Automatic annotation (TrEMBL):
<feature type="region of interest" description="Disordered">
    <location>
        <begin position="146"/>
        <end position="169"/>
    </location>
</feature>
<dbReference type="Pfam" id="PF04801">
    <property type="entry name" value="RPC5"/>
</dbReference>
<dbReference type="InterPro" id="IPR006886">
    <property type="entry name" value="RNA_pol_III_Rpc5"/>
</dbReference>
<feature type="domain" description="DNA-directed RNA polymerase III subunit RPC5 C-terminal">
    <location>
        <begin position="444"/>
        <end position="684"/>
    </location>
</feature>
<protein>
    <submittedName>
        <fullName>RPC5 polymerase</fullName>
    </submittedName>
</protein>
<dbReference type="InterPro" id="IPR045576">
    <property type="entry name" value="RPC5_C"/>
</dbReference>
<feature type="compositionally biased region" description="Basic and acidic residues">
    <location>
        <begin position="146"/>
        <end position="155"/>
    </location>
</feature>
<dbReference type="GO" id="GO:0042797">
    <property type="term" value="P:tRNA transcription by RNA polymerase III"/>
</dbReference>
<dbReference type="Pfam" id="PF19725">
    <property type="entry name" value="RPC5_C"/>
</dbReference>
<dbReference type="GO" id="GO:0005666">
    <property type="term" value="C:RNA polymerase III complex"/>
</dbReference>
Length: 684
């Protein structure tokens, strides 16, 4: 309060907002003028403007009689520009540089905060500015002088003799037809410097008439700087509450968001990169490098970075191939993009590149012709895929560019297992899309031998085995003692309560248990460096411990129920694929990793209220046996249960039915006429 009394308000000024010159008022900033030039009414010879670009050109006179003006220099410039002849096209008709052109550029991109103010009779009138333009000297006359000089040189060298014209030979002309322009190429062309210059040149100049300071028209226009009406209705923008006025003075931090570093596209600055979130850092690095060992990635991210967080983020943008991380295809080929070579959409490119990555999970060598034959893509696209992750070897094919990272595989078996599950899902998709044969799925013996990451002699192999045995001896001894203690405790409990033992007898089935660990066919027992023996689970002669059976059944039932509530009809093949993806999302050591056979999965499907639909597929179908087994949710508890059951009965008699037959059957069985939307919903 004491400070306010020391600084009293001595005058209050009314502020008015003038709207007459809104979006018409510009502020020109002239350069510091030379001694031979004055900015007055006489010196402004002409003016023109391009309104869309907010570009202005002013032509101003130079005082050639000023003692500071160098006449000889002015004559030399006029001679270089126009030559000796003078006509209407001459820049300087007086054979003397007597004028100067000024060209404008925008001083600020956002001028909404600036206004022109006029103070009159205790009132302050504000008019918002539409643009602030800085005027700078234009030296286009030098370009004209260079063009004149080149024309004179060409005339001297070419000559004007008729003999030269007679000796001109007929030249062959090659006609080429341009290929259709892709969307990506069109965007690059539109953003190019030449295209922008061409568009700017296409806009026509609008010539202006200059009025001096004391001209009557200038005096009339100057009156528009004052607000025409002083009523409150005219100035509602200036009537704000204190909180609204404070928000206008200190708006939200929009500029701070703009100042955040933008992710670089092709040139990486490590200092700028480390200011981004960890997920963005990893995505940018992988997008540029394509293939990287985990140790190299950690070194690029800097000291103090949590490896667990890095592992969580890297799995979102990359896949594990031979212990190394390879960027995912959808990161390199986002949606709604296409190939620069063939124009193929991104979805097809991703499938083709996934096939190449999957081939490298089986073998260190890939043949380009085999990839092109399976994917049906152009050679340039296939070459791009291979160059992302491999190196060409003469007479051998393409070899994966990085050695097998055994250290990462040993330290992170859970990550390897999860990645293996994802690759199983990708393999199932590729089998459907490309109709892969057995020779594509199973590597040859010779290839399997070459797939080993190292070539070692027999002595080295023996020494490595001895060192590994010594290293693991202590751990193996502890595990053996632990197993013996468990066996003793089990024997003791068995003797105490024999009557409680129940032996579950399962019917003998020819079906093999569904593999949830590692297929030997994927890489001769090695998938991304994970050996099947290292990941196998001791299931006590195929039976789980008593307490685990109920937990496994509960988890399996929850998965089956939730899956069929989302998708009412599934084949056994598709259900197994979804189950593998579900396993890949589970943490290591989960109860479902104990081993689930096909029979267990099918029995659980039937126990959850589903039925097997015996669809009469044609005998010549190429579908696998798992794809011919169709299961459907019989009762979902909604209003469409009866309609769905009728529809399933229809498909149990024929695998292909017309829509009108379905609609008539539904109307007869359910006793009501369904409209098109309801029939569509039942079919969906």
């Amino acid at each position: 309060m004491a400070n306010e009394e020391d600084d009293p308000i001595i005058q209050e000024i009314d502020v008015f907002l003038a709207r007459s010159l809104l979006e018409k008022l510009y502020l020109f900033q002239y350069p510091i003028r030379p001694a031979s030039m004055t900015y007055d009414d006489v010196t402004h010879l002409s003016a023109k403007i391009k309104p869309k670009q907010q570009k202005v050109e002013l032509e101003m006179a130079i005082d050639t009689l000023n003692p500071n003006y160098c006449r000889s220099k002015g004559e030399q410039i006029a001679l270089n520009v126009d030559g000796t002849c003078t006509d209407e096209t001459s820049t300087y008709s007086s054979k003397l540089m007597d004028k100067q052109t000024f060209c404008s550029s925008q001083a600020a991109s956002n001028v909404s905060r600036y206004a022109a103010a006029v103070y009159k009779k205790g009132e302050l009138h504000l008019t918002p500015l539409h643009g602030i333009l800085q005027l700078r000297p234009s030296f286009t006359y030098l370009d004209k002088a260079d063009a004149k000089h080149r024309e004179r040189e060409a005339a001297n060298e070419g000559g004007d003799s008729s003999q030269d014209e007679a000796e001109d030979d007929v030249k062959q002309i090659t006609v080429r037809f341009s290929r259709p322009e892709t969307e990506q190429a069109r965007q690059r062309r539109v953003q190019s410097y030449e295209f922008l210059q061409k568009r700017q040149a296409e806009e026509h100049w609008v010539h202006l008439h200059y009025y001096g300071l004391k001209d009557s028209r200038s005096e009339h226009e100057r009156q528009y700087l004052f607000s025409q009406g002083h009523g409150l209705a005219e100035n509602t923008e200036l009537i704000k509450s204190p909180s609204e006025y404070l928000m206008m003075l200190m708006p939200a931090s929009v500029e701070e968001e703009k100042d955040k570093p933008v992710a670089p596209s092709n040139v990486l600055s490590m200092a700028q990169l480390r200011t981004l979130p960890l997920a963005d850092q990893i995505k940018i690095l992988m997008k540029n490098v394509k293939v990287m060992p985990f140790a190299n990635l950690m070194s690029l991210l800097g000291s103090g970075t949590d490896s667990t967080a890095v592992l969580r983020c890297i799995q979102q943008v990359a896949m594990l191939v031979q212990g190394n991380w390879v960027v995912k295809s959808d990161v390199l080929y986002p949606k709604d993009t296409s190939s620069p070579h063939s124009g193929v959409p991104a979805e097809v490119l991703c499938r083709g590149r996934d096939f190449v990555m999957w081939k490298f999970t089986q073998d260190r060598w890939v043949v380009r012709k085999e990839v092109a034959a399976v994917t049906k893509l152009c050679p340039e696209d296939v070459k791009d895929f291979l160059e992302h992750m491999s190196v060409a070897r003469i007479n051998k094919g393409w070899e994966f560019m990085l050695p097998y990272d055994e250290d990462f595989v040993k330290k992170h078996p859970d990550i390897v297992q999860r990645q293996h599950m994802l690759w199983m899902g990708i393999q199932a998709k590729l089998e459907k899309v490309y109709n892969l044969l057995k020779e594509h799925l199973t590597p040859k013996k010779q290839e399997a031998q070459s797939a080993h990451p190292f070539l070692v002699s027999g002595e080295q192999r023996v020494s490595m085995a001895k060192a590994k045995v010594k290293q693991n001896y202590g751990q193996l001894e502890k595990e053996l003692q632990k197993q013996k203690a468990e066996l003793k405790s089990n024997d003791t409990s068995a003797k105490m309560d024999v009557s409680n033992i129940r032996i579950k007898e399962e019917p003998v089935s020819d079906e093999e248990p569904m593999d949830t660990s590692a297929y030997e066919s994927m890489n001769n027992g090695v998938v991304n460096g994970l050996h099947a023996g290292e990941n196998s689970t001791d299931s006590f002669n195929g039976h789980l411990p008593g307490g685990c059976v109920d937990r496994v059944a509960q988890e399996l039932k929850a998965f089956v129920s939730s899956t069929f509530k989302k998708q009412f009809v599934l084949t056994l093949s598709e259900l197994k694929r979804l189950f593998n993806l579900h396993l890949a999302s589970l943490p290591p050591g989960h109860t479902l990793f104990s081993g689930i056979s096909d029979k267990m999965l099918q029995d659980m499907v039937l126990d959850t209220g589903c039925k097997q639909i015996l669809v009469p597929f044609p005998p010549q179908t190429a579908a696998s046996p798992d794809e011919l087994k169709v299961y459907a949710l019989w009762e979902a508890g909604d209003t469409y249960d009866q309609h769905r059951q009728v529809l399933l009965e229809i498909f149990s008699k024929n695998y292909r039915v017309r829509r009108n037959v379905i609609q008539n059957q539904l109307s007869q069985e359910c006793g009501e006429d369904l409209n098109k939307q309801e029939v569509d919903r039942v079919l969906k």
